[in-house]
Design a protein that fits this description.
The protein has strands at residues 3-7, 10-12, 18-25, 33-39, 46-51, 57-59, 67-72, 77-82, 91-98, 101-102, 106-110. It has 112 residues and is mainly beta.
Length: 112
């Protein structure tokens, strides 16, 4: 059974940093393209960052230069380093294994 478990969320002041982790199990992690999505209250879920099996990355324009996605295939884990956080980054952040698998989400709140 595939499981994706996110961790690392929390409350941080504007300008602060957080590092999200997503630990995968029940799958051959290195075969999957991985991504982080987020959903703010009243808004649609949106792609934040993605990393392919080969390590190619892409980012939403809103997070370019501030967020960094990476993966460690030996640990079956994908990370999202978030710097210079803004209040508009507040959302529930989801890990995705493409295709078809989602984590339960971890809350990120940016507030003074």
């Amino acid at each position: 059974q595939v499981q994706l478990v996110e961790s690392g969320g929390g409350t941080v002041q504007p300008g602060g940093s957080l590092r999200l982790s997503c630990a995968a199990s029940g799958m051959i992690f290195s075969w999957y393209n991985m991504a982080w999505y987020r959903q703010a209250p009243g808004k649609q879920r949106e792609l934040v960052a993605a990393i392919s099996r080969g390590g190619n990355v892409n980012y939403a324009d809103s997070v370019k230069g501030r967020f960094s996605i990476s993966r460690d295939n030996a640990k079956n884990t994908v990370y999202l380093q978030m710097n210079s956080l803004k209040p508009e980054d507040t959302a529930l952040y989801y890990c995705n294994a493409n295709p078809g698998f989602w984590g339960q989400g971890t809350q990120v709140t940016v507030s003074s």
